[in-house]
């Protein structure tokens, strides 16, 4: 490889990193911190006009004649988005695999999500329906863009460099998301001196996340290169059919040849569902159950964002001796501890809430990083991208049961504490399945040459 080619590759990878920097701003500011609690306030205002939104609303909203608690609206919207993603992400992946212009597909999906996030500035008063539509559209656009983003990783990095390139992208995401969140913390905290109400400051922050996502997507759009598609459409009419699920079904059938990878994926579905629900529900729990303000929630999530980077490094160091499987199992025990502490955490004790945020950050970065690396050990050589596409589909498109259970438990009991303690079941089931994964056998099944610790 020439020096010019080497420099071109480095520049392209840096452009690829920037997309994680871009979309993570939406993940932290909108999906994790601000919009779910804000949508809950708007829904409560619609159901109980004239009532203090800090108080519980005893009146249900109605969606297609079905009563829905305003406190569950945001969670049900996330559930709807993830169910839609579960159906359509494989279609997006199949389409991208057959395209010569993945960077264009990535950008268009990203700009659709960014436009949806920016339009959240228009959600005000009692217009919770608009908020639900924009949340579903932005979440689906994010998940779809990440499927394409992960596929591009296989184009820009050879196998021996893929771990390092992927990790740098992840690090860029933590940094970018944390930086914009810190800026928005300043806006929300100093809203009075800026001549803004708290609600206006929140809406401006939502707009900033959408603009950040859209503008920084220009870097990968112009910095990535187009490549010929590996899988082209054949002359078979069935192969040329649009939006076919044939590729997903084929991958699932083939996955049966690797039972340890299949078992790990099943375990991952459960414990990742619990992790994602904690992420989505933490801001609602902090605001509605523990009585914290938006600026306090931003501080906590910002702390999680930066600690998670170091958590991944700590877990990686532990895994050198204990192995990734045992380290993940230890992380799931810590997740149960996190949920248990959250259940008993007293109201308005922000210092204790920050300590819990540190623990969440450590375990969040560690379990996510090691889950991906462990799964990679169980995959047949040369087909990693195909199976990681399925992994991404599971991560973004099937994490719906936790938010559904959280919303249902709250609707039945009226307590977010009862809702959050129910999430322990996801970590217990996921951990029980993970204990049955034979990593050494999985490596042998995948015919990988280098033995790795279990």
Provide tags for this entry.
2 domains; globular; mainly alpha; about 450 residues; Growth Hormone, Chain: A; disordered C terminus; single chain; two-stranded antiparallel sheet
Can you characterise this structure?
InterPro entries: Atg22-like, ATG22/LtaA_families, MFS_dom, MFS_trans_sf. Keywords: Membrane, Transmembrane, Transmembrane helix, Transport. It comes from Spongisporangium articulatum. It is a multi-pass membrane protein. The chain crosses the membrane at residues 21-39, 73-93, 105-124, 130-149, 170-188, 200-224, 262-285, 297-319, 326-345, 351-375, 396-413, 419-437. The chain is an all-alpha fold and 454 residues long. It has 2 domains: 1-231, Growth Hormone, Chain: A; 244-454, MFS general substrate transporter like domains (Growth Hormone, Chain: A, Up-down Bundle), CATH 1.20.1250. It contains 18 helices and 2 strands. It has helices at residues 3-47, 73-97, 102-119, 128-156, 159-189, 198-216, 218-223, 237-240, 246-255, 259-289, 294-322, 324-344, 350-377, 384-397, 401-413, 416-421, 424-435, 439-445, and strands at residues 61-63, 66-68. The chain has a two-stranded antiparallel ribbon. A hairpin with a 2-residue loop joins strand 1 and strand 2 (66-68). It is globular. It starts with a helix and ends in a 9-residue tail after the last helix. Mean pLDDT is 82; it is low at 233-244 and 448-454.
């Amino acid at each position: 490889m020439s020096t010019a080619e080497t420099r071109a590759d480095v520049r392209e990878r840096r452009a690829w990193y920037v997309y994680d920097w871009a979309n993570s701003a939406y993940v932290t500011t909108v999906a994790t911190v601000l919009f779910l609690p804000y949508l809950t306030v708007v829904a409560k205002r619609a159901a109980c006009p004239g009532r203090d939104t800090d108080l519980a609303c005893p009146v249900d909203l109605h969606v297609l004649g079905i009563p829905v608690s305003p406190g569950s609206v945001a969670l049900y919207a996330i559930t709807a988005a993830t169910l839609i993603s579960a159906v359509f992400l494989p279609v997006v992946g199949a389409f991208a695999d057959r395209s010569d212009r993945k960077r264009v597909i990535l950008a268009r999906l990203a700009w659709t999500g960014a436009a949806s996030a920016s339009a959240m500035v228009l959600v005000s008063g009692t217009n919770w329906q608009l908020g639900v539509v924009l949340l579903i559209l932005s979440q689906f656009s994010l998940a779809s863009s990440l499927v394409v983003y992960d596929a591009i990783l296989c184009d820009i990095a050879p196998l021996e460099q893929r771990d390092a390139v992927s990790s740098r992208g992840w690090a860029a995401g933590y940094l970018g998301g944390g930086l914009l969140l810190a800026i928005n913390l300043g806006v929300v905290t100093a809203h009075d001196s800026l001549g803004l109400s708290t609600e206006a400051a929140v809406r401006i922050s939502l707009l900033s996340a959408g603009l950040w996502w859209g503008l920084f997507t220009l870097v990968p759009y112009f910095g990535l290169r187009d490549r010929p598609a590996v899988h082209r459409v054949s002359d078979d009419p069935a192969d040329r059919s649009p939006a076919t699920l044939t590729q997903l079904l084929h991958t699932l059938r083939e996955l049966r040849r690797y039972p340890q990878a299949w078992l790990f994926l099943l375990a991952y579905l459960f414990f990742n569902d619990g992790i994602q629900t904690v992420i989505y529900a933490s801001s609602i729990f902090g605001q509605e159950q523990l009585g914290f303000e938006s600026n306090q929630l931003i501080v906590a999530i910002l702390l999680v964002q930066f600690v998670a980077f170091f958590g991944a490094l700590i877990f990686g160091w532990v895994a050198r001796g204990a192995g990734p499987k045992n380290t993940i199992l230890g992380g799931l025990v810590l997740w149960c501890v996190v949920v248990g502490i959250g259940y008993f955490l007293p109201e308005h004790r922000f210092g204790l809430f920050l300590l819990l945020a540190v623990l969440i950050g450590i375990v969040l970065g560690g379990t996510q990083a090691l889950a991906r690396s462990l799964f990679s050990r169980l995959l047949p050589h040369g087909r990693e991208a195909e199976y990681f596409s399925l992994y991404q589909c599971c991560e973004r498109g099937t994490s719906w049961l936790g938010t559904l259970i959280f919303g249902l438990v709250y609707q039945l009991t009226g307590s977010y504490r009862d809702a959050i303690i129910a999430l322990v079941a996801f970590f217990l089931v996921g951990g029980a399945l993970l204990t049955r994964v034979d990593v050494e056998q999985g490596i042998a099944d995948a015919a990988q040459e280098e033995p790795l610790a279990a």
